């Protein structure tokens, strides 16, 4: 495994206890932002019930470990949400001021979000290789309303909002009716991607038991084991604006890619869906350029039958690009 120099390595304070798995899932940190590769099952918000007892205790523990590991003074603030069983890139702000700034980016839709989903249905389930879904969603007292008609409670607060999702087929299994799609939500409404795939395209996300209209086909269950605890929806990439404090070009576009969980990649391999390497392993992009801190890359020259060495960025080059925004890649690899 590639070892990053001290300029890129996280500067830890002496840990008081062992590092949690969630801390190991940290990918990127700068002066105001930390991006975590969220595991399945984690509720990423601080909720309280009527008695004031925490029901987000697991998330509180994760935040505690991250603060301790990265020697952070303030609390961490989630600026967007991922469903409990959705995995992948989750943005956390390092202070209230940064939380407000990042939240404004999400609200103005300047943050580009890309998801990967394994959906039920083969290549014939899609009339086109890509498209856009635009539909209205109804919320009653803050909760999503799926049934037609008006709720019986006339005092209920009803809000109707338009949700829009771009989708693209990346690969389809030749052995079972499963397809890998990339989803780019233009809006960020609750359960938007799950509803659009299940009810608009009739290709529900594998493992989504709430919005699917049919039972899992034996064409799938006879070939692979699908565990009910996992939903195959992954926040693959977040592209966010960051700013240097000095210099002529202060604006920097940082894209953080979260590696796919092992159960996702193993199932894709079993059903012969080829995953693009950059999506499977994640990584870091600065202004659209992927950062790879290795000095050379050996490639085959087919027309000559020889090997050539193509220079890549050094680890110091990556550190220099991140220096102005106080950024560090803290994931296992780039």
UniProtKB/TrEMBL annotation:
<dbReference type="GO" id="GO:0000455">
    <property type="term" value="P:enzyme-directed rRNA pseudouridine synthesis"/>
</dbReference>
<dbReference type="GO" id="GO:0009982">
    <property type="term" value="F:pseudouridine synthase activity"/>
</dbReference>
<dbReference type="InterPro" id="IPR020103">
    <property type="entry name" value="PsdUridine_synth_cat_dom_sf"/>
</dbReference>
<dbReference type="InterPro" id="IPR006145">
    <property type="entry name" value="PsdUridine_synth_RsuA/RluA"/>
</dbReference>
<dbReference type="GO" id="GO:0003723">
    <property type="term" value="F:RNA binding"/>
</dbReference>
<feature type="domain" description="Pseudouridine synthase RsuA/RluA-like">
    <location>
        <begin position="33"/>
        <end position="199"/>
    </location>
</feature>
<dbReference type="InterPro" id="IPR050188">
    <property type="entry name" value="RluA_PseudoU_synthase"/>
</dbReference>
<protein>
    <recommendedName>
        <fullName>Pseudouridine synthase RsuA/RluA-like domain-containing protein</fullName>
    </recommendedName>
</protein>
<dbReference type="Pfam" id="PF00849">
    <property type="entry name" value="PseudoU_synth_2"/>
</dbReference>
<comment type="similarity">
    <text>Belongs to the pseudouridine synthase RluA family.</text>
</comment>
């Amino acid at each position: 495994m590639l070892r990053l120099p001290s300029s890129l390595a996280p500067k830890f304070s002496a840990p008081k206890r062992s590092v949690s798995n969630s801390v190991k899932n940290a990918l990127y940190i700068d002066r105001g932002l930390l991006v975590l590769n969220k595991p399945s099952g984690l509720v990423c918000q601080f909720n309280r019930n009527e008695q004031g007892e925490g029901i987000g205790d697991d998330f509180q523990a994760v935040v505690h470990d991250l603060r301790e590991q990265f020697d952070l003074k303030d609390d961490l603030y989630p600026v967007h949400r991922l469903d409990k069983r959705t995995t992948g890139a989750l943005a956390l702000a390092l202070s209230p001021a940064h939380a407000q700034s990042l939240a404004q980016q999400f609200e103005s839709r300047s943050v580009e979000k890309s998801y990967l989903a394994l959906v039920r249905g083969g290549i014939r389930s899609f009339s086109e290789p890509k498209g856009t879904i635009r539909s209205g969603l109804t919320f009653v007292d803050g909760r999503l309303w799926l049934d037609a008609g008006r709720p019986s409670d006339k005092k209920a607060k009803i809000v109707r909002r338009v949700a829009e999702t771009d989708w693209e087929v990346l690969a389809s299994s030749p052995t079972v009716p499963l397809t890998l799609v990339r989803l780019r939500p233009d809006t960020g409404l609750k359960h938007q991607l799950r509803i659009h795939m299940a009810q608009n395209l009739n290709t529900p996300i594998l493992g989504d038991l709430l919005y699917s209209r049919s039972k899992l086909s034996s064409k799938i269950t006879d070939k692979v084991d699908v565990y009910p605890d996992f939903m195959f929806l992954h926040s693959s990439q977040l592209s966010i604006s960051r700013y240097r404090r000095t210099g002529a070009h202060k604006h920097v576009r940082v894209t953080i890619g979260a590696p796919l969980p092992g159960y996702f990649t193993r199932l894709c391999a079993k059903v012969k869906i080829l995953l693009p390497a950059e999506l499977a392993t994640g990584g870091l992009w600065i202004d659209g350029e992927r950062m790879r801190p290795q000095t050379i890359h050996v490639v085959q020259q087919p027309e000559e039958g020889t090997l050539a060495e193509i220079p890549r960025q050094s680890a110091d080059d990556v550190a220099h690009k991140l220096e102005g925004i106080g950024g560090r890649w803290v994931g296992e690899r780039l």
